[in-house]
User: Fold this.
Amino acid sequence: MAKIFIYPTNSLILSDLVERFGHKPLAMMEKIREKITTVGIDSPPINITPEDPKLGLKYAAVEVPAGVRGRMSIVGPLIDEAEAAIIVLDSASAFGCMGCARTNELTKFLARQKDIPRLEVKYPRTEEEGKDFVYQIAEFLNSLPNEEDEE
Amino acid sequence: MSNSDKVKIALVSCGSEYAGVQKELESAASSLNAELVYPEMDVSSLDTIGQEFGLEVASPDLRLMMARAKAVVEGVAKVDGVFVATCFRCAEAAIVRNEVRRYIFEDSGLPVISYSFTERTTAATLLTRMEALTTIAKSKHLLARENQEGLTAGIDSGSTTTKAVVMRDDEIIGEGWVPTIKVLESAEKALRQALDQAGVKREDLQAIGTTGYGRFLIGDHFNADLMQEEITVNSKGAVYLAKAQQGDATVIDIGGMDNKAISVQDGIPGMFTMGGVCAGASGRFLEMTSKRLGVDITELGDLAIKGMQKNVEMNSYCIVFGIQSLVNSLAKGATPEDVAAAACHSVVEQIFEQQLQEIEVKEPLILVGGSSLIAGVPKALKELLKIDVVVPPHAQDIGAVGAALLVSGFVDKE
Assistant:
């Protein structure tokens, strides 16, 4: 089982696909869930406090907007943990919508900087492309070690 | 109080929940008995709203802002006012923020204010802005008042000075002005001065209104009938004194520690911006300059009128480094007149660069606040904007006058 970073980071379809092939998706939903269920923090709706953008400084400098750093404080650790990555390009909002384009640029860049297996596929627009899209992802996931110790 | 009594403010932002400021926004709203609401829209519209709005941006959250703005304008979301907020230092968001604000304001007539936040933004910073928004949304009748009636007093507890006026039947009959040291004592002293000059007793006053930073503290102390933030009060006071209560006007208020630029229609504030992050654009900069030049602040203006700002090289607007530039110029032989002119120009230029970009400057342009009395300041502003600058009589007292005027609405009810 490999830890797979997915982009868009909140894509339910992508996350489900990764799971079906026996790997662990590193998705934003999990992290948000952790945040929301953390007892003692009272900063609704997603419990991001002014401390989080400071944690984001590890990924983006102080001149980068607080919203980008706040998002990076969640996404950045996922990239750090990743053993492989799947990046879907130009996807529709319904496939997984990440709000901030600057965060998205930085997220993809950091995932590409890592020396890990990576698949980049275009979001399909036709049925034929859709089949090919799933096939490529399946092939990529099958090529990854099913046990620990990847790389 | 039931939910329906609350002022509904639509929050149109691009992810304030990720910047750690959401709680502060909620907290500022709830302290004013307002409620933040999130206009509903169709998710599929996110893919098309850019083209529809005419502004195609990469960030989906900015498209969400446009879609929510559309929901507000089309009346899908029933709200009383709109707060538009994006991250500080994001160029893409700044473009959308300004255009969305303009679109909502022009197409819905709802009061709208905007703000760019950092993770350090606190509820206290947001309070004055939200208070102005809720007042404009819910108390238009209060702001519609054009004449002062009865015997009332207004006290403006500012960061640097405390001003008080006593008004009777549309006339200022007493004025008080003291530096703010201990907030309550200074307010007492200012009011006493105004009462003495007016020749009336405190118990004769029919109503008292307070404004400025210390409005709540002094308001409780004097048992005031009205405690109101400076945006609405100062705009009202400015257009009243400038005799421009009908039609468009722009009010620039350069205070001791911050400044405001307010676009006013029929005496009611529309778009406005507040400074406050940099002392270089406030009266404090001028105070520091006059100290360095060894002249009283009241003499700085006349000095500046005689000087040429271009003879002094200013490398920074900063109150530390800007003053250093002035000192260096003196060392190189610049005259005190030139330095005074450069200081006035620096303050005005910074207000122009930081704040006047965000509101439409419509004539008459009314300059108020203590700094407007320094003659070099209106001169520099006139040169920069190439339009006439009106400094009304009692320009330093607009807050107190506005409070005395607005609170006279409470005299009627008695």
